[in-house]
Predict the 3D structure of the following.
Amino acid sequence: MKTKILAEDSQILVCFKPAGLAVQSARPGEADMVSELKNYLAASQRAKKASGSGSKIPYLGLVHRLDQPVSGILVFAKTPKAAAELSRQASGAEKEHHMEKEYRALVYAGEGVSLPEAGTERELVDYLRKEPGQNLSRVVPAGTSGAKQAALSFCMAEKGNGTENRHICLSVRLHTGRHHQIRVQLAHAGMPLLGDTRYGSEQSREYSARLGIRTICLCACRLSFFHPVTGKRMEFEIREYPWSEALAGTGSAG
C-alpha cells in the first residue's frame, strides 16, 4: 500500500499521500488512496470476523482532496457522522472550529520578485477561472464570467543559500479552496513552483531540470482539526518533503 497511515481510531483515518498517487481515480486499474484504504478496512473487517468480532461493510468518507502530483496529509472519516462533522470543519463555516491546513511550496524566485519580510505574511487575492474542458485554471479580471475569488497567505520558510540558488521554500495557508489555487496564484505572482510544467515559467522549468526535480514541489505538511466525536483538537505534521534529497547538494533542505 502506497498510502501511509499516521493515525486511526473508530472514527477517523489520518494518512500521508505520496506524490503521484491519486486520492480517487476514475481510471480503471490505476491505484488511488480511496481504493487502498477501502481494501485495508475490508481486510481489517475480515480479520475481526475470523476472530468472532462480527463484520460490517466498511465505510470511508472522503472529506478533502489533494491534486495527484501533490503530497501531504489527509483525514478520512470511518462513519457518516464523522464525515459530516469533518466536512463542516473543512468548509471553514466556523472561524473558531475549523480545519487548518499548511503547505510547503518550493518556488523559483527570479529578479524583482516581491517577498515578505522575514516573520511576516503576505496575502494574495486573485480571481480564478477554471477553463472548460481543461485541467487548467487562470487568473482573470474581477467580474469575468465563471471567475471565483481566491485568497491565500504565505511567508518565507527558508531561502536557498548561495548566489546561484534561486529557490525559496514558502509556508502557505489557503483561505479558499480553488482548482490548482496555490500553483496558479504563486505563478501569477512570479513564484512558480519548481517541477510544475503546467504553470511554470521557462526559467523555473530549466532550474528544476538542473536540480533534478521532476515532480511538483508542493506538500500539505500540517493538518489540524477537531475530533468529530470527542472534540479534542488534533494536529499532524511532517517535516520531510519529497524534494529534500534533490536540494541536499545546494545547501538548503527546503
About this structure: Residues 81 and 228 are 8 Å apart (CA to CA). The mean pLDDT is 88.
